């Protein structure tokens, strides 16, 4: 049984930083294609960052240079370091695993999801 548990969300002012964590069980982060998504009410889930099995990473243009995805294989945990946060980064952030293939930023290409953690950035 796969379980993804996100944590680390909160409220910060613009320019601040947060680090999100996704503790995984039933799936091994070092051998899995995993990603972070975010969603605001009324909008589709948006791909933010991806960590490929090889260690290669990908980012949405809107977060390049500000966000960094990483993983700790010993803790079986995926991270998202978010710096220089902007009000438009406000969203529920989700961890995803179990890719079916296809574009990494398409939410329907993932089988497993966490419950999400809320990030709120005030101006």
Short descriptors:
globular, mainly beta, single chain, about 120 residues
Structure description:
The protein has 123 residues and is mainly beta. It has no helices and eleven strands. The chain has strands at 3-7, 10-13, 18-25, 34-39, 46-51, 57-59, 67-72, 77-82, 91-99, 110-113, 117-122. Strands 2, 4, 5, 6, 9, 10 and 11 form a seven-stranded mixed β-sheet that branches. The chain has a four-stranded antiparallel β-sheet with strand order 1-3-8-7, with no helix packed on it. The chain starts with a strand and ends with a strand.
Question: Helices and strands in order, then pairings?
Answer:
Layout: E1 3-7, E2 10-13, E3 18-25, E4 34-39, E5 46-51, E6 57-59, E7 67-72, E8 77-82, E9 91-99, E10 110-113, E11 117-122
Shape: globular
Number of helices: 0
Distance, first to last CA:
40 Å
What's the order of the H and E elements? EEEEEEEEEEE
* Largest sheet properties: 7 strands, mixed
The structural class is mainly beta
Instruction: Tell me the fraction of residues in β-strands, as a range.
Output: over 45%
Low-confidence stretches: none
Q: Level of helix content?
A: under 10%
Mean pLDDT: 97
Radius of gyration: 13 Å
Total number of strands: 11
């Amino acid at each position: 049984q796969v379980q993804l548990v996100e944590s680390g969300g909160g409220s910060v002012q613009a320019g601040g930083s947060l680090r999100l964590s996704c503790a995984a069980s039933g799936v091994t982060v070092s051998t899995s294609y995993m990603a972070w998504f975010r969603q605001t009410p009324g909008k589709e889930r948006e791909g933010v960052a991806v960590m490929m099995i090889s260690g290669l990473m990908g980012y949405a243009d809107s977060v390049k240079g500000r966000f960094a995805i990483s993983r700790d294989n010993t803790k079986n945990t995926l991270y998202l370091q978010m710096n220089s946060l902007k009000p438009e980064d406000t969203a529920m952030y989700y961890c995803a695993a179990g890719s079916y293939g296809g574009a990494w930023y398409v939410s329907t290409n993932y089988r497993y999801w966490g419950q999400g953690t809320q990030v709120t950035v005030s101006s």
